[in-house]
Amino acid sequence: MTNIFSKKQLTLKVIFSFLLLFFLIVFFEAWRNWWSFLTFALAYTLGIALLFFDEQFLYKNYIEKIDLSIEDSSHFPMLATRNFLFLLALPFLSIFVLTSSGSVFGIALILAINFYLLIEMWQLKNEFLLFKDRFLAMSKIQITAKLVNQICWSALAYFIFILLIFLKFF
User: Fold this and answer.
1) Is 28 or 84 the better-scoring residue by pLDDT?
2) What HEC string does the chain produce?
3) Section 84-95 average pLDDT
4) CA angle, 125 as apex, 50 and 67 as ends, to 5°?
């Protein structure tokens, strides 16, 4: 598979994701309840690991190789965690988990997935053809640089919204 991101960009995604975890731990003084702290940190780490390992390794287990020449072309594999349908369902799932589940594990997992994808979108913001291949491959939307910019800003506003929901309920 051809990598979209350099090692530096991958490292930045992981570092920024863990910076949010650190902020949330400090903001909520999570160390006071060790069980919740460990559950939240483990689930958050699992969310980041899921997306990272899907991109690097897991896609090989579910991708259908119809033509071996596709692997050598400039096309990237369709990742289950980056496809258009997953991204459409994620906001509804996120709001449900944050408002109704009460699960520390689920909340941390959802926050990690959303933040990691947000970082990834912003990294590809200026490469709108790569953005389309990565996030909008299953859609029939005509992609432009302006649309990608709007999607990135909307994703940022959505993430701030779910953070506010998180802060309200915890």
Assistant:
1) 84
2) CCCCCCHHHHHHHHHHHHHHHHHHHHHCCHHHCHHHHHHHHHHHHHHHHHHHHHHHHHHHHHCCCCCCHHHHCCCCCCCCCCCHHHHHHHHHHHHHHHHHHCCHHHHHHHHHHHHHHHHHHHHCCCCHHHHHHHHCCCCCCCCCHHHHHHHHHHHHHHHHHHHHHHHHHC
3) 91
4) 60
Q: Which residue has the tokens 């906001």?
A: 91
CA distance 98 to 170: 10
Q: How would you class 155 by CB atoms within 10 Å of its CB: exposed for 0-12, middle for 13-18, buried for 19 or more?
A: buried
DSSP 8-state code for residue 142:
P
Distance CA 161, CA 163 (A): 5
CA–CA dist 3, 1 (Å, integer): 6
The label of the residue with tokens 């689920």 reads 106
Lookup: tokens for 14: 């992981």
CA–CA dist 146, 17 (Å, integer): 26
Residue 74 CB contacts under 8 Å (≥ 6 apart), including other chains: 2
The whole-model pTM stands at 0.82
Q: Tell me, what DSSP letter sits at residue 65?
A: -
Q: Where are the domains of the chain?
A: 7-169
